[in-house]
Design goal:
glycosyltransferase; Quinolinate_PRibosylTrfase_N; 303 residues; disordered N terminus; nicotinate-nucleotide diphosphorylase (carboxylating) activity; alpha/beta; Aldehyde Oxidoreductase, domain 3; TIM Barrel; 12 strands; pyridine nucleotide biosynthesis
């Protein structure tokens, strides 16, 4: 599945847990070039060429794994002789103190690739872990947890992968992969004297078949015009729980209901229980703390 492919509801199926290896290698190569543009001055001078390293990726806290491909690539691209063996795969949970992977090979390469590898796996595992907490919080309600476009520039495909690893669902990949008229779009139309329902009908007729058609509202009295305009998904932004429940009842089966705005682990269960179909959580990617993972290294001479 390509990064932007989606179902008619605009959501990418969340069973794909492998990233295109070419994307992985290109991004990791860029990160390594940033970290050691002319080589690793320290490792290349202080570490003898005849030393190998065996290192363990250890969990300092419990979490959900994400980023195995990037972790492996950071070492392989530092030195192709390095071997990485995983004991825990992407999407799997682990406890504090568990070994996640073993890295073995030339010590210089292991030391050079260490920080880049950890940066990726700590970041992505943090996203997966936070996502899993949101998914657990709405368990049994039928609501799906969605990511948003609030991702780190150029890292979206990887951060979305981490959301999937945590049990979440991907929203549209980019502005090119779905129609979503938000508050500022509607404000511009209103300022221009355009009739919202008429404009939505016009745009929908011009879109290519299969493109999801979503419109945001922030008040109950906006819903009918959006429904009249043919919205297939209605984004209920910053609604109170009471108003969400009213909106869900009013919309019924005429469109999918998506909640967003100010969603936290404290509020997400009540939001889900209103009957919305999906809940968009920007915090999954913009506020997830890096997970505490460490690389413990032991050295041994080459035979």
């Amino acid at each position: 599945m390509t990064p932007g492919s989606a179902n008619r509801d605009g959501l990418t199926p969340h069973d794909a847990k492998k990233i295109d290896q070419k994307l992985v290698d290109a991004k990791v190569a860029e990160a390594l070039a940033e970290d050691a543009p002319t080589g690793d001055v320290t490792a290349d001078t202080i570490i003898p060429a005849d030393l190998t390293a065996t290192a363990s990726l250890m969990a300092r806290e419990a979490g959900v794994m994400a980023g195995a491909q990037l972790f492996e690539a950071a070492f392989r691209l530092s030195d192709s002789r390095i071997q990485v063996t995983f004991e825990i795969s992407d999407g799997a949970s682990f406890s504090a103190g568990e070994r996640i992977a073993t890295v073995a090979g030339p010590a210089r390469g292991v030391l050079t690739g260490e920080r880049t590898a950890l940066n990726f796996v700590q970041r992505l595992s943090g996203i997966a872990t936070l996502t899993a907490r949101y998914v657990a919080a709405v368990s049994g309600t039928g609501a799906r947890i969605l990511d948003t476009r609030k991702t780190t520039p150029t890292l979206r495909v990887f951060e979305r992968h981490a959301v999937v690893c945590g049990g979440g669902t991907n929203h549209r990949f980019s502005l090119s992969h779905g129609f979503m008229a938000k508050d500022n779009h509607l404000a511009v139309l209103a300022a221009g004297g355009k009739d919202l329902s008429v404009e939505l009908h016009r745009v929908k007729a011009e879109l290519s078949p299969g493109i999801p058609f979503e419109v945001e509202v922030d008040r109950l009295d906006q819903i009918d015009a959006v429904l009249d305009g043919g919205a297939e998904i209605i984004l209920l932004d910053n609604f109170s729980v009471a108003d969400l429940a009213k909106a869900v009842t009013h919309i019924g089966d005429r469109a999918l209901k998506e909640a967003s705005g100010g969603v936290t682990l404290t509020t997400v269960r009540a939001i889900a229980e209103t009957g919305v179909d999906t809940i968009a959580v920007g915090a999954l990617t913009h506020s997830a703390p890096a997970l505490d993972l460490g690389l413990d290294i032991a050295l041994a001479p080459v035979d």
